[in-house]
Amino acid sequence: MTHMSLNTSSGTVEALQEDGEYRSPVNLALGRAFRRQPRDLTAEGLTQPGYERDEDDAGPGKIVVLIPAHDEEALIGEALRSLAAQSRVSDEVIVITDRCTDLTREIALAHKVQVEATVANLDKKAGALNQVLEHVLPRLTDNDAVLIMDADGSLSPAFLAVAAHRLREPGGDDARVGGVGGIFLGYPVAGILGHLQDNEYIRYAKEIGRRKGRADVLTGTATLFAVRALRDVVRARNDDRLPPGGTGVFSVHALTEDNELTLALKHLGYRCVSPQECTVGTEVMPTAARLFHQRLRWQRGGLENLLEYGLTRHTAPYIGRQIMTYIGVAFVPFFFTTLLYTFIVAGSVPWSWFWFGVTGFVVAERAWAVKRGGWRSVALAITVVPEIVLDIFLHCVYVRAFTDTATGARETWDHTKATAFDRRRPWWQRWHQIAGAVYIGLLLAAVVALALVLCALGLAWATIAILVLSGAAFAAVRWSGLDLMGLIRPTGELAGIGPLPAPAPQGFGGLDVPSD
To answer: In this predicted model, what pLDDT tens digit does every residue of 142-161 receive, in sequence order?
Structure first.
C-alpha cells in the first residue's frame, strides 16, 4: 500500500493507492464487480499519456471533460485519477464547482485541471453544466466530443477509448450515435444496503449486455456526447421542437436531466448506446433516507419526462416498463389479500411443488445475474428476504412519486416536500400536503377490492398464476441472453466501423471490470 500527498493552498490531501492483489480461483469466479489495479501515477498524481491519435482514428478530434461538483472532496480525487489513467487521454478537464464549501477546488487544482465556479446558479446540476457548455461548445467543432461525468465516479481504463470509437458516425448511417453512456456499478460497496444497490446495478449492466448496448438512459455518471448532437439539442429547444426546458443543453425543469436529454436525443434521431466496456463506479447511498430521496427523484423525474414528451415511438417502451412497475407494486397487496381470503374461507392455504419450482427458478436466475458482484451479492439474492424488503421499500418510493406527480408537489433536488412556497398556491395545487396518505389509502383499497372480487369469482389465483408465470418467462429470457426486442429495434452496437483497435500496453490500470 502506498500513499501520495498533494499539497494545496488549504492543506494536504492524501491520495490512496492500492497495489495489485492476489485473487484465488473462487474470487476470480465470484469476484467484486469493481476491483482496484495498480496505477503508475507521477508525483503530481497524473499518468503519462497512453494514447496518441493517428491518421486511422476517425473518432472525435478532441475530448473535453466536464465534472459538476458540489462538496465532493471525498471522491473527486478518485474521479480525476481514473481520468488520468485512461488509455485514450482527454484533451481538457474542467471541474465545475457549484457552491462548494469544502476542498473540492483545491483537490482539483492539485490534479492540474481547470476549475470553474458557477455564478448565481439556481438550477442545480443542469444549470451548472449549461453555464459552462454555453462557452465551451462554441470553441469546439462538430468532430469533437464532451464527456460529462459525476464527481463521485471512477472510469474503467478503456472508457474513453471505447466511447470515442463507438461515437463515430459512418457516412450514410441514418441512426447516428449521439451519446455513449457508461454502465454503472457500485463503488465503494459496504454493508447490506450497499450490496443490495450494487445488485440492482449489476443486473442492469447484464441487461444492457443482453441488449447489445441499447441504452435506456445515457447515465449522468459518465457519458460521452457528440458536440454535433448537443448543438442539435440546443437548436431544438430554441425552435420549440422539444418540451420546454430552457435554452441550454440540459433541461432546467427536469429532476432527471440525464433521462430528459436521452429522450431529446432519441426524438432528434440519435442513437444512445452503452457498450459493456464502458463501465464506471458510482457512489451507493449509505442510508435508507438518502436512498429514498435518490430513488424518489429518479422515479418522479422519469414520470414527468414521460408526461412532457407524451406517447411516441421513443417513449412507448418506457411507458410499458412503468406500467409493469406499478403492476408489480399492486401485486404484493393483491397476493396477500388473496392468501388471507383463502385461509379464512377454506381454513388452509393451497400449495404445490410446481409453484415452489417456479419460485426457485426465478431466485436462481436472480442469483446468477449478480455473480460478478461476489459471494455476498449471490448470498443476498439466494436469501431472498433482503431483496424482498428492498423491493417493498422501493414500492413505497414509486407510490410516493406517483402521488407527488399527480398532485403537483413542489420539486427539490434531494426530495419533494411541501414548503412555505406552497401556501401561495391555490388549494387544489397544495392539497398534496395530505394527498400522499389519501392516495395510498385509495390505491390500496382499490387493489384489495379487486382481489376480493376476483376471489369471489374464483379468478384470483388464476390471475396470480398468470403474473408469476409471466415473471418466470421474463427470467428465462434474461437467463438465455436472447434479445427479443433486438429483432425489431436496432442494438447499441455499430455496423461498418470495424473492431476496436487493441490499446497499447499500459503501465497503469485503474478500476477494471472482469467480463462475465
So the answer is: 889 999 999 999 998 889 98
